[in-house]
Amino acid sequence: MNYHLGKRSMTNLIGVHPALAFVVTEAIKITEQDFTVFEGVRSLERQKALLASGDSQTLHSYHLYGLAVDLVAWVDGQPSWDPKYYPAINRAVKAVMARYNINSTIENGADIWNGWDHPHWQMSGMMAYYDVRELAA
Questions:
Q1: Domain extent for 70
Q2: In sequence order, which ranges of 66-137 are alpha helices (DSSP H)?
Q3: Total structural domains in the chain?
Q4: 137 pLDDT exceeds 60?
Q5: pTM
Q6: Biggest distance spanned by C-alpha atoms of the chain
Q7: Could you report the per-residue pLDDT of 73-89, keeping only the tens digit for each?
Q8: Residue 68's domain is classified under what CATH number?
Q9: Residue 44 CB-density burial (10 A; 0-12 exposed, 13-18 middle, 19+ buried)
Q10: Does some domain include residue 113?
Q11: What tens digit of pLDDT does each residue of 24-34 get?
Q12: Helix (H, G, I), strand (E, B) or coil at 107
């Protein structure tokens, strides 16, 4: 298949670190599983709501900094969080990172947290170097 990112996905990449945004835009071209950029940069209010609902485990998310994206599988015109769809997305992202020799600080949530949060990708250890909130000020 030849997938592409839609307008919503591209909008959700605004403010995301350029290296991570590049990996995502290249991964969609080679993936065997369609996906959407469900979320990129988050507001503190959104993060608080996700923490309260149990959909996040931290108030200090990489999303707040522009250092994370949630790549959600797109199945039959709908987002799906079913884990069976995520290995293909994972392979595509890692293939792009290898092809372009992108720093391995880009990590998948399922790898970081023992199988939890398959859609999440973050640039670990980069909070001291990139903060989209400072760029917007």
A1: 7-128
A2: 86-99, 109-112, 132-136
A3: 1
A4: no
A5: 0.92
A6: 41
A7: 999 999 999 999 999 99
A8: 3.30.1380.10
A9: exposed
A10: yes
A11: 999 999 999 99
A12: strand
